[in-house]
Structures are given as structure tokens and as C-alpha cells.
Amino acid sequence: MPAKPRTDEGDSPAAAASAAVVASARELIERAGPFCVAAKLQLACFERLGSAGWRALENVAAVARDAGLLVIADGKRGDVPVTAAAYGQALFGGIETPWGPVTGLGADAATVSPLLGGDALEPLIDSAAEAGAGVFALVRTSNPGAADLLDLPAPEAPLFERLARLVAERAPRLAGSAGLSGMGAVVGATEPRHLARLRKLMPAAIFLLPGVGAQGGRPAALAPALATHPASILVPASRSIAGAEDSAAAAAQLRDQLWRLR
Predict the structure, then answer these.
(1) pLDDT at residue 140 in the model
(2) pTM above 0.85?
(3) Sign of the Cα pseudo-torsion (36, 40, 46, 52, in order)
(4) Model confidence over 204-237: pLDDT tens digits?
(5) Adjacent-strand bridge partners of 97
């Protein structure tokens, strides 16, 4: 964002900041978008600006769609089933009210937390299926603290392997025509030693692989995550592209590195 964004006189700080966010995102999408397949929108970065931030989120999602990109809502949502259903309406669909229909964000995919169990995942999967969208369940995340819980040994295997089985069991619900499923998994690129095992457990899942770039993950280490289809992995890179002197060149370089994996 510019250090001193221009504002209309009388703009509130939230409105001014939100306008700057949209302008910055639009410029980034125009430059880097041609080398990408999706825009991953981190919901917290918009929500911290209040209602103006949510409007900015809708505007940036529209800009991404106009550029031909898929929109991934990254909020790691998850709750008991009745609340999970509301999250599904907010992310993918909408709700009928006595005053007429209200539409949600209309994301093409969203990150979700499976730690409340299968019954909490089901409403989110239902909403995604109805909208023709997908979900990425947290399986083994990219942050160092993931080892505190997700790597803990269970009776038969680490917890992240049980989460992977939850994903694999639900893959048929969002199966596509190319042999892949919209029931995907978030698998951190910062721990490539787990990739081969997780691919074996989730053969049809699309892997969302955060951690490349600023977190230290290397594109060259991601080959074990690939299934037979090139769309079986999706690699987000935020700071390393947005913060680059030439964001288009940074996105193109990452794209080329990933294509060489095959």
C-alpha cells in the first residue's frame, strides 16, 4: 500500500485504508495475474478494517474474477455444524430472508478447519458442492508450531494423517472430471518430508501448498506433492510476489519453476 494514500476529504480512516487496499490489489492482479490461476484473499487482512474491509474484499474478489482468476477465501473457518452451515452460506452461497435473497462472497474455494470432526466439515462441503466450489481442509500447515499438535503420535499415526483420511473419505463428494477432487488439503511447503506420504493418503485431493517464498519453502522440493494431473497442486506466494520489485517477473519465475517439476 502507498505510504500516503490519497483520500477524499471527509473519508474515514477505514474507508481510506480500504480504498487503498483495493487499488493496491488491483495493480498487483493486473501485473501478476496473467501468470497465476487464482487469487487467495486472506480474510483477516480485510476484516480488521471492519465493514469497509468486507466491502473491499468483495471488490477485490470482483477484480480477480474479471481477470479470469479463481477466488480462494482464506479464513480457516470451522465450527459446530449449525454454525459451519452459516459459514458455508457466507463463503459460497447466500441465504433467503423475508426481504429477499442475500448473496455471500461467492468464493470458488475456501480454507476450512477439520479439527471439530467430520460432522462440522459436512455443511461446508454441502455448500461448496451446491455452488460448484471447493474446500481446502487444514491437514499439515506451514507454521513451525504445527508440530505442537499435528505431528503428535496417535495410536496408529500422527494426527495429520488422520486429518488426511478425513479428506480422502470425502473426496468423492466433490469429484471432478479430471480425476481430481475439490475436497482439497492445505499442506505446508515448509515440511516437504511429509508430501509423499500425504499424496499417497489423498490421491485425488488438490494440495494448497503455502510456505513458498517468505516462509522458506522451495518450489523444487514440491515434486512429491504432484499427482498425475498438473492441477493437483496450487502454490500460493504472497509476500514474495507482492513485495517484489517486479511482481510480474516474480510470479512468472515461480510459475516456470513449478512447471519444471513435471
Answers:
(1) 82
(2) yes
(3) positive
(4) 999 999 988 778 889 899 999 999 898 999 999 9
(5) 100
Instruction: Judge contact between 165 and 118, C-beta under 8 A.
Output: no
Contact 182, 229 (CB under 8 A): no
Phi, then psi, of 218 in degrees rounded to 5: -115, 130
Catalytic positions: 76
Q: Domain ranges for the chain, please list them.
A: 74-259
Are 52 and 14 in contact, with CB atoms under 8 Å apart?
Answer: yes
Residues ≥6 apart with Cβ < 8 Å to 197: 161
Query: Helices 13-32 and 247-259 sit at what angle, rounded to 10 degrees?
Result: 50
Q: Quick one: CATH architecture of 74-259?
A: Alpha-Beta Barrel (3.20)
Q: What band does 147 get if pLDDT is binned at 50, 70 and 90?
A: confident
Neighbouring residues of 203: CB distance < 8 A, sequence distance ≥ 6: 168, 227
